[in-house]
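Changelog entry

Holo records now carry the ligand SMILES as an explicit input line rather than a separate metadata file. Below, a converted record for flavin-adenine dinucleotide, shown in the new format.
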Amino acid sequence: MSEAFNYDVVVVGAGNAALCAAIASRENGASVLVLEKGPKIKRGGNSYFTDGAIRFAFNGLDDLRVVIPNITDEEAAKIVMPSYTKEKYYNDLMEATKKQSDPELANHLVNKSYETIKWMQSHKISFDLIYDNQSFEKNGKFHFWGGLPVKTSRKGVGLIQQLNDRAEELGIDVWYESPAVKINMKDGEVNSILVDKQSEETLVETKSIILACGSFEANKKLRAKYMGSEWEHAILRGTEFNTGDGLSMAMEVGVQPFGQWSMGHAIGTDANAPKVGDFTKPGDIFKKHSYPLGIMINKDGKRFVNEGADFRNYTYAKYGREILKQPSNIAYQIYDQQVRPMLRAEYDREEATFYQEDSIEELAAKLDVEQQQFIKTIKKYNNSVQDGDYDPTVKDGKGTKGITPPKSNWALKIEKGPFYAFPVTCGMTFCFGGIKANTNAEVLNEDGMPIKGLYAAGEMIGGIFYENYPGGSGLMSGAVFGKTAGTSSVAYIKDKVKNNIVN
Ligand SMILES: Cc1cc2nc3c(=O)[nH]c(=O)nc-3n(C[C@H](O)[C@H](O)[C@H](O)COP(=O)(O)OP(=O)(O)OC[C@H]3O[C@@H](n4cnc5c(N)ncnc54)[C@H](O)[C@@H]3O)c2cc1C
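Structure line, unchanged by the conversion:
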């Protein structure tokens, strides 16, 4: 074993939650070490791959201009920005999770969201409005909707760059290729952490550890064990390093598992997307979220979900799982020329896989499907489409009659060539399973008592998301609990010093 090191606080992971925790610890006076399992060129975890969409409560445009000071008066005059109150955020969270979200953790996330965004901005993290996808233009004004108008500048890439710049400025040490391996306790308190520092076993003495190293989405075996064998086949949208290390280290010292270990966030993604997130192609560029405008057909030539059940915000995180259940875990999104110009920008990217033919029969011949059934399904669907006013900006009720599953909104006949098929598979985003923490980000043992000196943030905390989540809440949860963990850990250390009981 090499020489021993000593830091007040050791943060495990170098994603958004971890770096917020590190910055909060440092600004409160602690010496801080960040441990990152991946190499520097693959730093940033899942946070790096995000579109940077971040959901927080605010009262109108004035609140947003505080954190986005470059919005000019001229620009502001063209914006219609409804408030997104704490109450609305909380209700959205409860609705998405079917009221399963832990009320205390949910309230902490919501209540601290805006002040945490302001705190991030004070640490030189910059934000922009999300004009595309979250607003529509009407009579020269941009009307925002959905409570998610803000992203970090240059998305996840910008967020991770700015957090690292700030960490460096504040004198926080970061060790890459240095996974944490084991938490050591002494007399019921955190005492040190064992690190595989560039393949050398290294002990770091510390009074406080903040676990912010993700859930187990990158671990196929654990996915199969906790979520079902089919989850081995899902491709991974983000980092390859979130293999559940933090969860197992925590459980070794008696931490309580918490949340929905049997489920995770998963979407329909390009069937040819990389098997794990490619750090050279960041950004959420493979997702395929325009299915409400078309239909989805599996290899047997059959439909399997109500594509128009609701706006994509409310179905996309569930439909990844439905695609996983289909033969070979694959489906084709089918569109015709009428809707092709309305598809989201990712459909026009050079990475997008698609087939284009002038007739349904020619298209069927190109795909790995039961051809006759495929053609029959589209004919049957076309015959079931009811009259009505088509309007993709509202739930228009223009649906089908007499087919199962139905399509409840935005049902247009697939009749104008050319016809398009986009193959999609299930892309795993992150697991909902985590460990139990309280609103001080203290990690709790099986008896519900805080483990002295141990904190958590981000995906590691279970019990906030179940079944689904309101988009943009992952980054917000990481930032809120990261800041809380950093502040709490330093308060704990100061308290120990004050009571003169430092090891
Ligand atoms: C493609 C994609 C798009 C997304 N888009 C959005 C979005 O727009 N908005 C949103 O809110 N959420 C989004 N999410 C979800 C969001 O990424 C996560 O909720 C959030 O980033 C998790 O942050 P975190 O800090 O907990 O974990 P991460 O950012 O994943 O960081 C965990 C870090 O821990 C490291 N690590 C793992 N094990 C160890 C170990 N043993 N020792 C040391 N380090 C270790 C990993 O290498 C990693 O760097 C998206 C996710 C993906 C994959």
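Spot-checked after migration. The first strand starts at residue 5 and ends at 12. The chain has a mean pLDDT of 96.
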